[in-house]
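Ops channel
N.P.: pipeline sanity check, posting one input/output pair.
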């Protein structure tokens, strides 16, 4: 079961659809030189597209891309059939865009008297490893006590409303949502194009409630890659679950049939937190204090008292309130979560401070024994002096889509 979602496959790029790309020219020029050259031109695009269909949704265990556009939607209709129709249209659009194809008849292929099916800003761009991952929030199942779509009884026990944590300062306008879509790509324009086109398709059925752009991935699911750094300058993602660790994914990330909600088997639960980081305060903090806060050194990323980033942490050598000590599985009954967050900077706050931080995303088999357990443990975290959680969401991400199926099929069928 595991490993399927990590497969990359060559996709037909938007450029090749238009037939004027460098790759197409190469293919054309090579035609006279024999099939070998054509084959290698094909290979030039290999890896650009991540398979959309499979047992698990892409964008969870697949390698982390450089950019994020995350959007939470409110469903504005009470009509179940319209919602399902939109999910089917979204699925077709998502399958096309992740393969590098435009939506429907494209940006210029349809009738001149109607708005184009595709908004066009990704024309000429390759798939850029775009992944689109959908999740359903608690309010899709019950909102203000109302079962709008007849799915109240199908709400998984694991899809709990997150409790209030000490220090939370959540903005309702940046929290919640009936449906979330995580778009990740190596080109921000491709990620933004994807969300924009889903929003366009959803007009009259779902409206964007809030969204977040992210850059500089702060964790990785490929252990051989260099560990990225967060906005505090520390390597982030050293101890993460890798996309290749099938046993860990099965134990800690993928929901199973026996977990209580059969329709979620092969899916996962996404917790998103917009965490503001007080950059200016941090930048006036001594190096020793910074390293004590995390329990790792800044240059190499080695655990306190040790030499190399991958050395096994000795928790007792860290301060009792060090972030890594409190977040470590040994302090949390063995809990592991798959982190997939991104940095953000959204201008400044009018007081001369950057509105910057970490858009934290974690996938887990059950938020009660995943994020919630770790976040409770972080109540005494030394890092809390320098951060504040200002946005939040929890979403049930269904299993992957089979060929001919649609997003949410196991829930609505
Ligand atoms: C509830 C879960 C977590 C939140 C929220 C969180 C916020 C947060 N983290 C950093 C920076 C780092 N975190 C690191 C490790 C780490 N963090 C969590 C969980 C949360 N972090 C876990 C489970 C771990 C791994 C612990 C382990 O097994 O050792 C690190 C160290 C490098 C690494 O392993 O990734 C850094 C650095 C920030 C800046 C932040 C909020 C803004
Ligand atoms: Fe952390």
């Amino acid at each position: 079961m595991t490993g399927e979602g990590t497969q990359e496959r060559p996709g037909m790029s938007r450029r090749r659809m238009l037939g004027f790309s460098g790759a197409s020219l190469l293919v054309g020029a090579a035609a006279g030189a024999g099939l070998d050259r054509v084959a290698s031109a094909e290979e030039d695009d290999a890896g650009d597209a991540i398979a959309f269909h499979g047992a698990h949704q892409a964008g969870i265990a697949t390698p982390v891309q450089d950019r994020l556009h995350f959007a939470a939607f409110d469903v504005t209709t009470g009509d179940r059939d319209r919602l399902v129709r939109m999910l089917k249209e979204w699925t077709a659009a998502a399958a096309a865009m992740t393969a590098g194809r435009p939506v429907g008849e494209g940006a210029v292929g349809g009738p001149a008297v109607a708005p184009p099916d595709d908004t066009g800003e990704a024309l000429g761009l390759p798939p850029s490893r775009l992944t689109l991952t959908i999740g359903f929030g608690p309010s899709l199942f019950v909102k203000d006590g109302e079962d709008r779509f007849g799915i109240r009884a199908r709400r998984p026990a694991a899809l709990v409303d997150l409790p209030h944590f000490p220090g939370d300062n959540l903005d309702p306008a940046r929290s919640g949502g009936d449906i979330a879509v995580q778009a990740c790509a190596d080109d921000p324009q491709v990620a933004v194009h994807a969300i924009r086109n889903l929003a366009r398709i959803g007009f009259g059925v779902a409206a964007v409630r809030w969204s977040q752009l992210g850059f500089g991935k702060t964790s990785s699911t490929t252990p051989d890659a260099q560990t990225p750094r967060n906005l505090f300058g520390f390597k982030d993602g050293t101890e993460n679950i890798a996309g290749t660790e099938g046993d860990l994914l099965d134990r800690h990330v993928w929901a199973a049939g026996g977990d209580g909600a059969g329709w979620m088997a092969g899916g996962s639960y996404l917790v998103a937190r917009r965490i503001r980081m007080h950059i200016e305060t941090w930048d006036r903090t001594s190096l020793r204090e910074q390293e004590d806060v995390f329990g790792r050194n800044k240059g190499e990323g080695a655990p306190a008292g040790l030499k190399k980033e991958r050395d096994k942490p000795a928790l007792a050598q860290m301060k009792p309130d060090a972030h890594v000590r409190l977040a470590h599985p040994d302090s949390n009954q063995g809990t592991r979560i798959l982190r997939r967050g991104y940095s953000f900077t959204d201008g400044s706050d009018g007081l001369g401070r950057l509105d910057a931080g970490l858009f934290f995303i974690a996938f887990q088999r059950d938020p009660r024994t995943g994020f919630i357990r770790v976040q409770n443990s972080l109540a005494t975290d030394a890092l809390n002096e320098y951060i504040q959680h200002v946005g939040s969401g929890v979403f049930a991400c269904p299993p992957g889509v089979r060929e001919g199926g649609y997003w949410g099929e196991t829930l609505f069928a």
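N.P.: looks fine end to end. The longest helix spans residues 80-98.
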